[in-house]
Model the fold of this input.
Amino acid sequence: MKRIGIDVGGTNTDAVFVSGGRVQASVKAPTSSDVTTGIVQALAALQATCADARGAEAVLIGTTHFLNSVVERKRLSKVAAIRIGAPATKALRPFCDWPTDLADIVNGGTWLIEGGHDYDGREFLPLNKSQMAAAADEIRKRGVRSIAVTATFSPLDSSHERAAEQTLRELIPDASITCSEDLGGIGLLERENAALLNASLIELARTTVEGFAGAMRHAGLVVPLFITQNDGTVVSAERAARFPVFSFASGPTNSMRGAAFLSGLQDAVVADVGGTTTDIGQLQSGFPRPANAVVHIGGVRTLFRMPDLISVGLGGGSIVRDDGATIGPDSVGFRISTESIIFGGDQLTVTDVAVRAGRLALGDHGLAEAIPATTSNRAMSRAKEMIESELDRIKTRAGDVTLIAVGGGGFLIPDTMKGVHEVIRVDHGSCANAVGAAIAQVSGEVDQVFQGMSREEALAAAKALAIGKAVDSGADADSLVVVEVEDLPIAYIAGNAIRIKVKVVGDVSARLVQKES
Done:
């Protein structure tokens, strides 16, 4: 399939055209404040570089837009939090463990409703429908239109969440509703937090996806649009607009998947040096190693499936201070073309000192000559130390590792480093993130507790659910393969309770491409 992959970063928007299993062309354009303009420029540059890109059959986009909104506390909607589990869960109300500044922005009111299920799947209390209707009426009167619904142990039985959703849709037809059961995970607070974050981002997600689609139309591309997810796979733009939280870590994940594709290596460490940060992770069988610990997003505790990454404030746009002794963590970002020394600005950046040290040919080298050599050398040494320190932290065993250096700031990775026996650089490595988006497959994942059936029956049921989710997301059913199965019997629960995680991946459906085209 002929694909265009795009990654919208903090500094640059990268675009690549992949056809016949090879990267045919890659370009970079400055990321714009409205995101869409940068994509339009990147697509125009790609089509000018490679005329065949006009015949792309699908566009796949990765973005950190949603994650940045949480981190920066911007463009978030007020959310009405409905928790079904009273009176047992009243001690810790929704938003109780959120940073105060973020809770003040998102909290649109909380309602605790009688109902929910117990740990063994039995009904804790019947859903109090009168309380639910009263809550819906109050939310409607307040004018809050983003709602998150969480019920105790809904992954075992989601009937109370679905009944609440139905009531809300009847009384508030224009509401955007997130049910925590769709986001998985057994832990109540973590699952609730995921639902609240998702609900706060839905309006932004819709606007962003519409902007992506508008950029494609501007480029004459009337083809399916897919958005990349945290695990290196993609979903249809429609589903991504419903569940933006699944795209939080898509940028670094795409870089790692792209590094594996471009290098041919399935197991290695990847350092992706961007304009603001360096993200370091471990490839296992061509996919990022997942994090085992609880993941905090903008200070909020969640249980998302995220890659195990270490990020350090070091990138091409990082500001250099103290005669080269201090780097970042702040960066000029996409303003590097106007604010850095080599482009006539007055802000000393890592890119400036790299040009002065002869590590990079960019901008006006004559302007870089004004930078003292001692400052340049000190900054380059400091950058190397920062990367070596993080490489040591990402390792899971002793010994030297193979390091794949990618990203637009890959020039910061020296050829010789402590703990590294080989540094590999690849063609189109500066756009590895967009390559990762272009080659992504579609996935379906289930994390659910099953009762009253044998292990074999539960596994079969979980696989069927995962396949259904993948097909709904745009996968070709005939290409799906199971890539991950994990089952864990749950003690002290009657009915042979077992928790099963299943993940399947497959190619983008050709039938969907033909339909859209």
